[in-house]
Amino acid sequence: MQYDLQRLTSLVDDAKKNSQKRNFVQAVELVVNFKGLDVKAPENRINEVVALPHPIGRDVKVCIIADGDMVVKARQSGADLVITKQELDQYAGNKKAVKKLANTYDYFAARTDLMAMVGKTLGSVLGPRGKMPDPLPPAANVEPIIKKYRGAIRVKIRDQPAIRCRIGSEEMDSKAIAENILAVLSTIERRIKLDQYLSSIVVKTTMGKPAKLR
Question: Beta-carbon neighbour count of residue 96 at 10 Å?
């Protein structure tokens, strides 16, 4: 399904016009609604990290769970938090600390040989939130991975037939936001036939009225 960049840019312009100025910079949100989509079917439960062409104007926090040389490399590459194998043990049975971790960090990645330990220690909290770490081979170059997370958002379908995500801020150029929307739609299209299941595409600011494409 093809979407015209000009139409999407106009949609973002409309969303901005529908919004009054506030004493803070409002986010621009994308809502993709589906019809007739079985959200209980595993193939329709999307949970993917989408690399966007333009930063969305918010800080993204990345946590790397590592051991050995990867600990040093992750710190040098600017990870917001690096949890070592020994430190991971401290989270066992401490659900309050694990919840704080899940609330603070947007993306997690862990060395493959630590994934079983991560699942046992953090999985009960990170799993339901769709934040289970991506596995990293021991020799992985973590710098580009962290960089990818910095410019990415997570899109997911869980209990409702809709995807809601932040794709910019009101200060951003409307065309740049529209290009971010295209990146999200392209990701969804790889999993779900939009020409069959799409109900509507809506763009709105945090406090503004929605602008609807279809």
Answer: 9
Structure confidence by residue, pLDDT tens digits, 143-173: 999 998 998 999 999 889 999 999 999 999 9
Other beta carbons less than 10 A from residue 163's beta carbon: 21
Q: What is the pLDDT of residues 12-55, one digit of tens each?
A: 999 999 988 888 989 999 999 999 999 999 888 888 889 999 98
Cβ atoms of residues 157 and 130 within 8 Å? no
Q: Spell out the residues 6+ positions from residue 53 whose beta carbon is closer than 8 angstroms to its own.
A: 176, 179, 180, 183
pTM score above 0.85: no
CA nearest to 146, candidates 91, 193, 78: 78
Neighbours of 139 (CB within 10 A): 7
Domains of the chain, each with CATH number or no CATH: 5-57+153-212 (3.30.190.20), 62-150 (3.40.50.790)
How far apart are alpha carbons 54 and 179 in whole angstroms?
8
Q: What is the DSSP string of 90-142?
A: TTTT-HHHHHHHHHH-SEEEEEGGGHHHHHHHHHHHHTTTT-PPEEE-TT--H
The per-residue pLDDT for range 82-121, each reduced to its tens digit, is 999 999 999 988 999 999 999 999 999 999 999 999 999 9
